Records
---
Amino acid sequence: MPASTSPIPLRKALPDLSWWTAVFRDAEIPVLAATAESLELMRANEDAFDANSIGEMVATDPLMTLKVLAYAASHRSSRLLTDAETVTAALVLMGITPFFTAFGPQATVEDRLAGQPEALQGLQRVLKRAERAARFALGFAAHRMDPDAAVIHSAAMLHDFAEMLLWCHAPELALQIRARQQADRHLRSAAVQREILNIELADLEQSLMKAWRLPELLTHITDDKRLHDPQVQCVRLAVRLARHTADGWDDAAIPDDVNDIAALLNMRQEPTLKLLHELY
């Protein structure tokens, strides 16, 4: 692992995964302006809020969710036998006053990308996709009566966090990737990422989760390479469908998504499609 890190924002690709991990591990994570504003309103009347109400607010913002979970993992007491796998669990362990002490006024993505409207639009598109994926995944988990439904929801919300961080910290590179994919719709995302970044974002995501010591279950569920794990499938298929429905239900890949989701949920195609439209 390199001892020093490159400046943010990045304008050129870093050499390898260890460099990307070192830079993003220590980089500030900006949050949505709405989250930063809500946090300050809550701070002004701290006694009126508990872990559940704060957790519900934080959980609508994938970047703030990531920030809280990473902080909780790095400050976890050695006496604790379990990880904080959700934001609410992290807040319960942390305590409300220590939370507000640790998380002062937050830098926002809107300020960071104020001079780059295309990059802000790109990030917002990923954030909306993450929210939709989380709804799908929670619906799948609930149908399967999975006891880890809350963690599956968080995993789907965070599945593409490396791409979010790329838009925040290397917007020019993120725009290059988008331009290449728009020019050739048949290009695989992983191939374009290797070409422009020297890494795949999925590998960076797993590397960062381990560097931040995020909960093992969360790291496991977001690993797309574990193809036969039903919890991984919940997240992977939710993310895939969220990507394919970004502009509606006309994408040619959606019928395959429906087939795979129907198999996961042990349902016929017609009720599966009805469920998906309800979750959307």
---
Amino acid sequence: MGASRMALFGDVVMPGTEPVDPYNLPPPAAWLALTEPQRMALEVLSLASVRRLLSNLAPGDGHPVMVLPGFLGSDGYNATLRRFLKSLGYRVYGWGQGQNLGPRGETLDNLMERVAMLGDRYGQSVSLVGHSLGGIFAREIAREDPSQVRQVISLGSPFGRGRHSGSYPARLFEALNPTDDLPVALDDLHRAPPVPTTAVYSKGDGIVNWRTSFQNPEFAHGTTQNIQVRGSHCGMTLNPTVWYVIADRLKQSVEDWQPFSASGLASVVVPKHA
């Protein structure tokens, strides 16, 4: 698929060895990691309380959307989010690759083919919404073939520099994806793909350092935006604020993309966007 695919794994090392990470960001505080389940439960409860309001959002234009799960997740993990997006009129699909164990086998090639198939079926480019590792896949797909991708929305995806030292699951990822089976190239993952790109992050993320989920402006472009929300990492796909942000972003036209702007109550629940 080219050099950009290799960039995804440029800093992966064999299990048991110390990676060379010049940025050396620490992982989230232990209390954030330990409270992920409880905070995720609160997000589920808050979603239940405002779900009817969210269902009243203006419908979209019906273009195809693919939702990609995070590391160790599957399409079942994102089912509730996909149903919500379908209720807004979009043609919504999962990634169709089973459990996300990383770039094993033909996973990336299969995803590229699936995106192209959806684009051909509907005659429109596809919006990609990816949670954690799923967002990294989405960015790489857009980098490889931007003509097929309408936009990318990543949710707590550790694409930034320092992601190895700043991520609790990094060693498990390496154990499941041995270095000998992966291509090696210069790290280019922190650069935004050449399509409208929204990075949703939370300073309460207990799994990855939030700074690695933030698009550095130095490596961004005019249709790139960071949006901060309040919540956990594991609950991103069940967070009502995240749903609101995704619905807003999917409504953006191809010809006239506009940055997210919160007003009223939305300005309270979305603390920062730039």
---
Amino acid sequence: MSAGIVDIATAKPGRTIDNDHFEPIGLTDEWIRRRTGIVSRSWLPDDAPLAEVAAEACAPIVSRMTDPLSVGALIIVSTTPEQRLPGVAQRVAHLAGLGPSVLTFDMNAACCGFVYGLISGLALCDAGQARSVLVCAVEAMSRMVDRTDGRTAFLFADGCASVLLENRAEFTGFRQVAGCDGTQDGLIRETDAGGIHLDGPQVFVHAVRRMAESAQYLFDHGPAPTVLVGHQANARILEQVRGIVAPLGVRFVNRIENVANTSSASIPLAFAEELDAGSLPTAGRLGAVAYGAGEAWGGVSVDYRVPDATNP
């Protein structure tokens, strides 16, 4: 018996921002598509509380559980917290209908946050410290970016996705690899003036290498994933990673077109879109790899068996 993913839900409230939105700052739809593969992205209303958005993605999972009190931990992953104190996790637990005995905490590992959150939640389940764990990645990157900056404004998006982890007899053990290098913290960082500094050429090289290495580790230390989802940062990065892992014969997910760079939420959002479209079976083994500010990177391979979205 081991832990795996048994449910998934998403929330992308707000408005859809097409590439034409950025014409006033000198960017064209053709240029953005060619450079990033992004066609549209979701932006939350500026006054939408993150806790309510996160609860919107957690509540459907809780409602489908026969025993919501069995959730032993709720991990809220976000690069864009609204406040330092208190954390958002406790409020989400209340709004989502969880009991008062749940362990809750917030986590920030930038774009690698969902991978870090999965590793933490799976470890809690496998150690017998929690019967089930909710991992929720919620982001409002549109509030963090300088919307007049033609280098970054078009890249980032908002959204939320949650997964439920449980121990089941049919699941095999998860595999994980993770690391960080604090000497590279200047590659992606928040600026003093507001906005995000991104060293594009260096980030491209580091992201491709770290995600490809993480994927290779997961395949070398099987069971091998049947589907691989990389952080949806940029279509060119994803295609570079796809080319490197192609010999591994895995289904590779690229949903950057309408997901955009949703930081920690991009992997579960892309995974959910692929499931909702019927492009993936409802049971298999997910490989998730990511690279983000910090710099932080990692990968996790985990079994999943989720409800059929096309036949609820």
---
Amino acid sequence: MTDTATTTDSAERTLGILLVSSSAAVFALTGVLTKSIHADPLTIICWRGFVGSILITLYVLWRSRRSGGRESLRLGWRGWLLAAEGALASIAFISAFKFTFVANVAVIYATAPFVTALLAWVLTREPFRLQTMAAAAVSLCGVAIMVWSGFGTGNLFGDGLALLMTIGSGLYMIMVRAFRDTPVVWAGAVSAFLLFILGWLVTDPLAVSSRDAVLLVTFGASFALSSILWTEGARLIPPAESGLLGSAEVPFAILFAFLFLSEIPPAASLLGGVIVLCAVFAHAGRDWLVARSQRTAENSF
């Protein structure tokens, strides 16, 4: 490998790391923005979907034009299924923040890789690695502690929605892998627009204060920005590295909730969160180290 090629690869990797890390930080604002907006969850979803779908559509059209129109925008039944499933998961996701702590939602969502692996094994008999099984068992203990602490409080329903959203996210990732020819980002834009239509039909999205209107536009823009940053960054770095960096969303979400909402979850939630985070980062970190050693071995030849 020439020095020029090495420098180019290094620059692309650095850019990929910055983009994916920024995506995690922006996406971590979801809990803070949801709780800061006084409107009901469906109104929030409506405007988040409206603003997000417009911005993501502009991005998709820009990518298509940049590639000379080679990227197909035809969804087909697979793309529509992705859009519908993503919309349902988003409803559970946004609603969860209204009924429990931001930390609880973020930590439960952090188990999505393990839920995805389990569902893939059940539905498609995809091999379930021993490493993943061990991390999943540890993270399940952490989630159990968090959910148990919600009994007798108003947080249990929100924790349940977060679990439902995590299962939906796992199904979504399995479908993304299965439907490789489907334009996933475009399906995301359509999913956001479906949420806008749903919110418009069942709520009164215009009955919001000027303060909420500003926050709703900000929310939609942050949703689109995090999606775009992730898409661009994930193109430049290995999947194991993007997965590890994406896990940073959880501590970001907890930090933002503390800084902007002064939200401190109960001790049981913190304990469960620490257990889950240890499992997630240990699992993602091991994948990253293995991938890095493989790249080093390949470059040595």
